[in-house]
Amino acid sequence: MATPVGLVLVAHVATLAEGVRTLAAQMAPEVDIRAVGGTDDGGVGTSFDAILAAVTSVLAEAGPDEGAGVVVLYDLGSAQLTAELVLETLDPDQADRVLLVDAPLVEGAVAAATTAAGGAGPAEVAAEARAAYAPTAGASMAGMPESPESPESRGPAEEPVEGEERARTTLRNPAGLHARPAAALAHLVREYDARVTVGRPGSPGADAAGVLTVVAQGLRVGAEIEVAATGPDARAAVDAVLALADAGFGELDEEMSAAGPPVPPEPSARAEPAASAAPEPGTLRGVGASAGLVVAPARHLRRTEPRLPPTGGTHDPMAERRRLAAAVEQVDAELGSRAAGGGSGADIAGAHQAMLADPALHAGAEAKLDRATPAEVAWWRSVLEARDLLAGGADQVAERAVDVEDLGRAVLGALGVDARPSVRPEDVSGAVVVAEEVFPSDVAALGEAGVAGLAVARGGRTSHAAILARGLDLPMVVRLGPAVLDVRDGTPVVLDARTGQVRVDPPESELSAARQAARDLAADRERARAEAASTVVRADGTPVTVSANVGGTAEARAAVAAGADAVGLLRTELLYVDRPRLPGEDEQAEELGEVLAELGDRRAVVRTLDVGGDKLLPALDLDPWRHGPLGLRGLRYAFAHPDLLRTQLRAVLRAAYGRGEVWLMAPMVTTAAEARRFRLLVEEAARELAAEGTAFARPAKVGVMVEVPAAALAADEICAEVDFVSVGSNDLTQYVMAADRTNDAVGDLYQPGHEAVWRLLATLVDAARAAGRHVAVCGELAGEPDAAVRLIRMGVDELSMTPSAVPDVKAALRGRLG
Question: Region labeled Disordered — which residues (predicted)?
Fold first, then answer.
């Protein structure tokens, strides 16, 4: 008769697990003992799926009786981590019946088996296993401690596990082990035949190949970490991880690398802004994320948990897996259409596509599918795990937690679950919507419903929701803290996103003054829009070109309607973002031609494919480390894939035939040699087309984007090779300030208006003017009216920005360039 408690023995090698099982079974043949060793493909390591199958099978055999359960023993800390993840996937009533035991595998298994054979319950079996620590050196297996110390007390001073390598180092990169370094770490360790863990000294550590579990540890700058590895390449893997950490995971410049580890920042509250010395009563202070001034009643955005189908009953796991795959595919296609359509949400949709493809989400959901669990439940549990990992322990990736939940709800919707808040126009039209957080999808729905503004407790200026709000001209203030959630529905508020503050229920005199100020601002904006079609002229009679950045036909139309003189940046990524394969030359030429046709006779600057960094396009199979912000991105990627670049150059030249004036430029140029090589490749494509007799037009000018400080400092050399330069102010700022523009944890350092950025711009402009080259600036800096005036006074010829910013910038230039 089977005993009420069964055992699962987890080891990195299958023969070890089976050998220990055989030994324990000889002592207690009536106990259900399962051996789980090695990876699914027979290698050294552990298998999540195999452990899950063993635990659920033993639970089923043990039955539902009180006192029945499973005791799990393991050989190394990384096996413990895998087993812990298995427990997290179980239903609470199942997980409560499973105990993980930190004990020597051989002695612990024998003690546990003999105790279970006597009819003991799980707690007693686990206690006997723990008490089996060997009293003398060498008596225990796999290098376990000689006395029953906790895992937290063990460190590298202990006698190492046979074949295991360990070392410690200190995190040096400013943001610690957030998502991007964790992705770089995962990419690195996969190159070695070794099982690698990373964590605080003495802890079991997290599997270095798992991005989310590494991030969730919250390891920050200045923290000491311990790297452990087992397997044939263990020493090489540890050395490689140490080298990567010493280099700051690619996030340190040379000066910082030489300076040693930076001092860790003091903990701070993520969601709340710093309080002013003496806040005015009734005033909530936050951060302006999308400019504007509105007076309106407050209305709360209510969000409820999705209504999921019940667990239990009978479900075919394979059929549920197919349902889930179809729902994900549907959402992916919707995101792809949005990305290809251009507009302020195009880049965000592309980023969401990459996030939706994260294998961790799918693996977590598939591991939860069984006969009692439908696809909706399995998927949502996996999404919540990923969300909590991102939100709970790492400030710098908290905003991505919102994106994960938004995506999760979208897939639930495709599965037939009503997972979104109900937004009724009659409830929120003309109101300031108050929320703890808003999803990117919320912003679009609220904009259509006619809301006046958004007052958000959390969030950040670089969040995807904030970017969309700016594209919709929807005033938004974030980081107002939990106090904003106490504002009652219907309370009049003044939301001033210019200063980042919200006045709650102010006196009528203040409300009247704010309404008048809002009307004045609106009138100024309408006047600017009416005048935007005319060209801005300097006092000396020379024109200033105010252009727009576009990514598709919709934005091209918006640029024309906004009064843009030209297109200063046509992003060709739209041709790739939603494609499972690369489009051919004919397809690219046709779609580019459609965009150019929308511009009429306006000049367009076409930028070749800019991928990498935060643009990890599915069709190109990019990874966050190799193609990250400091990796193989932009023109570097194109040079590494010459056929892709050649196809695109030919397509651009063909699309330019019969259109307005077309200039061509390359992104992410660092040296003059790269600029020279790009120009030669453009000419080579033109010669090919001419030899074939294919209709085409040579670009009127060939230039490069200056986004790298090295290029700005050597602008004289680069200008000798090209006809024009265009400053990518967003990327240039993040490289000058060493602050990732997509990471709100360093948002206070990402300052396009910092004097260091201006000094570098002055150096660049002086060099370009001396060489007689046209110089443009595009991005956030160009679209800010005060900065735009300063840039033109500095000698910049052209400004390029989001279409909605064109009227205000033209108005500022007219009023202040006289």
Answer: 139-167, 254-317
The pLDDT of residue 156: 38
pLDDT score of 258 more than 60: no
**Cα dihedral 504, 505, 509, 512 sign:** positive
Query: Which is more confidently placed, 45 or 474?
Result: 474
Does residue 374 have a pLDDT over 80? Answer: yes
Res. 272 pLDDT band, cuts 50 70 90: very low
Q: Identify the DSSP state of 194.
A: S
- The tens digit of pLDDT for each residue in 10-34 reads 988 888 888 888 888 877 788 899 9
In one-letter notation, the amino acid at residue 254 is: E
As beta bridge partners, residue 605 has 663
Where do we find the tokens 């990384």? Answer: 78
Structure token pair of residue 291: 């400019």
State phi, psi for 159 to the nearest 5 degrees.
-60, 125
314-323, 342-351, 393-402 — most confident range: 314-323
Sign of CA dihedral 384, 386, 387, 393: positive
Alpha-helix runs per DSSP H in 103-233 = 105-117, 122-130, 179-189, 211-216
Helices (H), 63-176: 77-89, 92-95, 105-117, 122-130
Burial 672-706 (b: 16+ CB within 10 A, else e): bebbeebbebbeebbeebeeeeeebbbbebbbbbb
Residue 476 has pLDDT above 90, yes or no: yes
| Beta carbons of 62 and 32 less than 8 angstroms apart | yes
CA dist 181 and 630 (Å) reads 12
Give the contacts of 319 (CB within 8 A, at least 6 positions apart).
none
Query: CA-based angle 414:420:421, to the nearest 5?
Result: 165
> Which of 587, 666, 792, 746 has its CA nearest to residue 173?
746
**The amino acid at 570:** L
Name the active-site residue from 12, 300, 464, 627. Answer: 464
Give Dmax over CA atoms of the chain in angstroms. 100
Q: Which two tokens stand for residue 414?
A: 């495709």
Count of beta carbons in the 10 Å neighbourhood of residue 753:
14
What pairs with residue 169 in β-bridges? 225
Cα–Cα distance for residue pair 255/243, rounded to 1 Å: 17
pLDDT of residue 210: 63
Residue 358 has pLDDT above 70, yes or no: no
Mean pLDDT in the chain?
80
- Name the pLDDT band for 421 (thresholds 50, 70, 90): low
Active site residue 778: yes
SS3 550: strand
| Cross-strand partners of 543 | 537
Beta bridge partners of 5: 69
Query: CA 555, CA 594: separation in Å to the nearest integer?
Result: 12
Domains and CATH numbers, the chain: 5-151 (3.40.50.510), 163-259 (3.30.1340.10), 283-303+422-526 (3.50.30.10), 317-414 (1.10.274.10), 535-816 (3.20.20.60)
Close Cβ partners of 350 (under 8 Å, ≥ 6 residues apart): 335, 339, 573, 577, 578, 615, 617
Condensed to tens digits (0 to 9), the pLDDT of residues 502-556 reads 999 999 999 999 999 999 888 877 777 777 778 888 888 889 999 999 877 877 8
Tell me phi and psi for residue 477, to 5 degrees.
Answer: -120, 130
Residue 458, amino acid: R
pTM of the model: 0.48
Among the listed residues 12, 178, 300, 778, the single catalytic one is 778
pLDDT at residue 693 is higher than 90:
yes
> Which amino acid is present at 351?
A
- Written as six digits, the tokens of 101 are 């035991």
In this structure, the chain runs to a length of 818
Tokens of 177: 């082990």
Long-range contacts of 38-46 (CB under 8 A, 24+ apart): 38/11, 38/12, 38/13, 38/14, 42/14, 43/193, 44/12, 44/13, 44/193, 44/194, 44/195, 44/230, 44/231, 44/232, 45/12, 45/78, 45/195, 45/231, 46/10, 46/12, 46/78, 46/79, 46/82, 46/195
